[in-house]
């Protein structure tokens, strides 16, 4: 079955979530289930790795988890409560580090403005937080005045992480956050994520098609295939003795 | 920031000269456009460097005034177009759905009329004059600008920084104002220059037909229309304003190309 960790308090729970997209003209409308009866939970302080091939529904799952997409059926709970109708009520408590380093930062905003934005949105004072956050992700203070095109891909993802952390969220989604980076830079960023998690204690949903990267950061792994979660297991168990035939195939390909 | 290339700089210089020309006319340089200074229909010579018209007025101040009228009218119209197209293009592109459908259908209907037909219809409704010319330019340039701004806004809306802002709880005005607008501004600027040249052409055409700017006020269209009457006897009457019109349109397009080369690669860079 899908994996609830009994005992541990969950920050995020998806309960029997289905998302159906419709496309095409009326009458010949195509229906596609991007998520089918997905149940997942992320415990406080835990990192859940979500793997699966392209199109399996990982990003859709993250969009539902972030409240960007309302499920067609099923329930989402954040910190034990049903998702509020207005997702702004949860602003600052959940953040995301997204896929593409090139588009993760607004090219017309200075790095410092980007990092400060989540605070500005909430009307919170910025103070020295930008400098502090940049320091935490290993960037000097001077980066605040730069524009994204003056940064490398790895530096940009560090800035994205700083921006995600600035409101001290309970929950962060990493959607293919390191996939576009060089392997050596990937390792640096993954280490950074682990260190910051130890310090800040946020929970994370770490999405990737790269099983190696997920293994590095995740406490548990969920495997998706065509919209369904086919297996959930502890990382150690998953990589040594995958239960589902599809997981075995994924691991063999590694 | 990269600099404009030489050709565009040349275009920009031409435009500046025309603007100085137009401003000079306001300051009275070149003489009184309405004063009769000599015999009628004289070829260019001392005292009347672009010749005299059928009333004996010097063409030089008249062309200067005409350039000013045409540029001012077109520029105001393009600013209106830019404001309207940016608003609707950005909202339609970001929001999608029914609003998007509605805006795009309206724009398509407008687009299906040739500019000059549209202009004549407008003149018929509003009556000939500057307001009709202005409205015509706006209606003629809105469709293309709105479409292109919308297309750019659709692309920008899907970028991760917009999603991140929404996740952070940013409200619509912030998302559109801070994230979408600045990243489609390049498209607006480039299309604005092209729209300006369309505007000059529409003003010329409409005034030429007698539906736009009304004499005695001079505009390039008015002067060309008047000049056409004496094309054989006094070709300089049409040559002066005609050349200025062509130069203005060429210069603006060249500047537009330069702006596009400078701004758009960044706007439309593919996801590599
Ligand atoms: N807005 C949408 N409209 C229609 N179909 C969609 C939409 N978003 C996603 N889909 C479809 O839902 C399915 C799951 O997409 P999703 O982006 O969640 O996959 P993914 O696992 O994140 O893939 P990848 O690894 O390529 O990022 C795909 O078949 C996709 O085409
Ligand atoms: Mg995805």
From TrEMBL, chain A:
ABC transporter domain boundaries: 12-251
One of the record's GO molecular function terms: ATP hydrolysis activity
GO BP annotation list: transmembrane transport
Entry keyword set: ATP-binding, Nucleotide-binding, Transport
InterPro entries, per the entry: AAA+_ATPase (IPR003593), ABC_transp_ATP-bind (IPR050319), ABC_transporter-like_ATP-bd (IPR003439), ABC_transporter-like_CS (IPR017871), P-loop_NTPase (IPR027417)
Pfam families reported for this sequence: ABC_tran (PF00005)
Family, similarity comment: Belongs to the ABC transporter superfamily.
Stored PANTHER family: D,D-DIPEPTIDE TRANSPORT ATP-BINDING PROTEIN DDPF-RELATED, TRANSPORT ATP-BINDING PROTEIN
Protein name as annotated: ABC transporter ATP-binding protein
Organism whose genome encodes this protein: Nonomuraea deserti
TrEMBL record, chain B:
GO CC terms of this entry: plasma membrane
Alphabetized InterPro entries for the sequence: BP-dependent_transpt_permease (IPR050366), MetI-like (IPR000515), MetI-like_sf (IPR035906)
Subcellular location: Cell membrane
Domain ABC transmembrane type-1: 67-256
Protein name, entry field: ABC transporter permease
SUPFAM superfamilies listed in its UniProt record: MetI-like
Top-level division of the source organism's lineage: Bacteria
Main location: membrane
Species this chain originates from: Nonomuraea deserti
UniProt keyword Nucleotide-binding present: no
Sorted UniProt keywords: Cell membrane, Membrane, Transmembrane, Transmembrane helix, Transport
Membrane topology: Multi-pass membrane protein
Cited PANTHER family: OLIGOPEPTIDE TRANSPORT SYSTEM PERMEASE PROTEIN APPC, PEPTIDE ABC TRANSPORTER PERMEASE PROTEIN
One example of a Gene Ontology biological process annotation: transmembrane transport
